[in-house]
Structure formats: structure tokens, C-alpha cells
Amino acid sequence: MAAHMKAVEEAEARGATGDRGAWKWKIRQRIWDYMEENDIAANPRPVHHRIPNFVQAELTAKQVAMLPEFQAAKWVKVNPDRPQAEVRATVLRAGKMLLVPQPRLRTGFFSVLDPSKIPAEKYGYACTQAGVVAYGEPIELEADLKVDMVIIGSVAVNAANGARLGKGEGFAELEYGMLRLMGAITDDTPVVSCIHDCQLVDDIPSEKLLCHDVPVDIICTPTRTIRVECSLPKPTGIYWDKLSPQKLGSILILQKLKAKLERAPRWGFQPVERVVQTIPAPNTDAHLRCESVLSAHSFVFVKHMDYFSSQGRSTC
Asked: What PANTHER family does this protein's entry cite (predicted)?
């Protein structure tokens, strides 16, 4: 894993992934080092090149449970990483449908865990990788579902604008993009990240983010809940020009999705290119953003246009 992540880091730094993200790795390294040096990190350790687990991670689940959006939700998607284990169990205890991605999307897409079909004493186990295999029901791209909340892990989050950094592999972005293309989520679906307070940063600039980066609306730490007042544009789908051939070749579900897009009439929608829409931001020049139209019966596929290289995302 370490060798793989080192290769990802080097590729991003030289722009091979389209990320040009050397600055991101400096922030990640700073957070990972701080958590290890101050014994904030929890197993599995070391936390480098992971969504880091941390002491009192279970307290973030209590913050999530108090959110009105969570209480109203029926379907909740949660990342499969260790620090969100208690969050996943909280979803089941609340009687909500839990949607969990297959780890690294290796063996499939998502699994659904229905709390009514799992013994209550097994909720904790059901939220582990082995438990998802035992109790989860795999779903396919054609599944008709509406996800009411997306919960993702992070390495660092900027509370001022909701910009986040994952561990650098882009799986949270791929999962989000696929759910958007399915029509399971919209731009208004709240995105929550559960992190330690030390993972809050102020040096993730919105102008350096790319179209596939997923910002968050709500941040839950062991001590507080933060609502981001200045929200950034969210991805509208999968940006195929940002995917390396190696990434596409290693993820079967992406290959299936791409094939469905290429056979659009058979899947019930027409892919078209649209020009980006110019939108003004206060006290700045107009910025460009991607736009897509999503509905229950037709999808508009947006091809990424390189508008971030000049102006970046629209800022608040």
C-alpha cells in the first residue's frame, strides 16, 4: 500500500493525474505527522496514507445523530474507513438504510445494509468489511434509490469554504460522481465529514480545487458541529478526462458505467456536451463552473472543460 500511495503522490506532484497536487500532499503529511506525534492517531497505525483514525472518533457519530438532516434521512451513504465505523453503526441503530461503497471499488459498487434484516447485536459487526459481506446486499448502477445524506472521511477540511482533502486516491470523488450520474443525489444533498479538530485547516484555497473535488457542507468533530457558510460547487458526475487509463482499468464498475454512457440510448439517456456557465461571484471576476441537468428519466453528461486552470472554482 505504501508503495502504491507513493506512486500516486509522485504522479499528482508532476501532474500525471491531472491534479497537480503537490501542495495537497504537504497538507496531508502535516496532518498525519501531527496526529502521530501527539498520539491523536488510533489504530490502524501509522495513519499516513489513510483516512486517519483518531481517539474519540465515536463522538463524531453523536454529533451526526443530532443533525436535523440526519434525523430526517432515510438513506445515508457512509465511507468504509475505520474512523467512521461508529457513524455507520449509528445509521443502523437509527433505523436508516446504510449505503457503503465496496473498499476501493475493487469487487463492485455499493452494498446496502437494511437494519430490519440485521440482528441489533450485530450492528457493530455489520459495519466492518466482513460484516458488509455477510449482511450487505450489492446494488448495481441501475438501482433506483434516493440518498438523503453523504458522509465522507477526510484528511483535512477547511471550515471556511468546505474544501477537503482525502488520502489522495480519489475514491470519494468517484463514488460521489457515480451517485450523481445515477440520480441518487443532487447538488442539495448534504455532504458531511467526520474528522478530529486537529484536521481543520485554513490553507486549502478554493481556487486550487478541481472539478472532481467534493466539498462538504457540514463538519462533525468530537467537540462540535460546523456548518460551512460559503459552499463551493460540487461535482456533477465523472470527469473521464481526469481518470488515468490505469485507474479506469482497475475499477470494473467504472468500465461498466463508461460502457453504459457510450450506449446511452439503451440506458435511457442521451450524453451531450454543454458549455460551462459563467456565474458571477461577489467582488471577483466571473468564474466558470460545470453544469449538468439530472432528472429521474434523463441525464445530461458533462464533459470537463479546463476552466480551473485560469480562474478556478467560483469563490464566496
From this structure: 5-FORMYLTETRAHYDROFOLATE CYCLO-LIGASE-RELATED, METHENYLTETRAHYDROFOLATE SYNTHASE DOMAIN-CONTAINING PROTEIN
